[in-house]
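Hey,

The postdoc asked me to send both predictions to you directly instead of through the lab channel. I've kept everything plain text so nothing gets mangled by the mail client. Protein one:
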Amino acid sequence: MNEEVNEVYNFPKIEELKKWLASIIYPGNLQDFVMLQEIQNDENTKTLKSTFYTENHQYFIVGVDKINEDGYLGCQVTCRKTRAGEDWFRGNDLPDGKFNKQTWDLILQSIICYEIVILSTHTRPKEVIENGNDIRKR
């Protein structure tokens, strides 16, 4: 019975992760920005490892699709450069959990938090600085 199920099971979560990754690439093709590696772990499990880069970070998103289970989705980040005096690359675990849209959204929010930078006071609206809302003064 299990063999019959595996013949028709196409690991849809893996295909869904590819679509989610492609949706954040504009313009261009997914393969131009993201390295993908599919691994058939066993007859019931398939893994997609994806890697992409920004100016300062390298991100790893892993999706695991298992027959009759929720699967897994997770992300890790490492710095691409060492800090002065250090001989290791700093990194962090980002959100992970069940393979679903909620976990995906948490991963994207975390990536944005890693990449966003504070505006220079020279380009920020004058009223923000005058009202004491300058984050650097907290």
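Protein two:
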Amino acid sequence: MAGLPDVPTWQDQGKVFSGLGKPDLRAATLHLLLDVTSSYGDELILAYVVVGALVVSGLWMFFLSKRRTEMPERHPLCKALSQYGLVFCGAGD
């Protein structure tokens, strides 16, 4: 079984940031270079929920449009117009 990767040393960090010329960048990213302890999958739960809700709503809209195309008399607009008299909301044959 493979062990944990080697933690970068100050010399390795110096090689990475030597050509950038921004000393604040080195201080701001040190904790990211050394952090090999956590999994980032747990932080994406909200994104999974949002994407799932969008997929479900998209499938529902597809289902409604398909049903209304196949049976136009069930469309809400046709139902609303039918109260004023006989309305043919289907395609002419």
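Summary for protein two, as requested: The two ends are 71 Å apart (CA to CA).

Thanks,
C.
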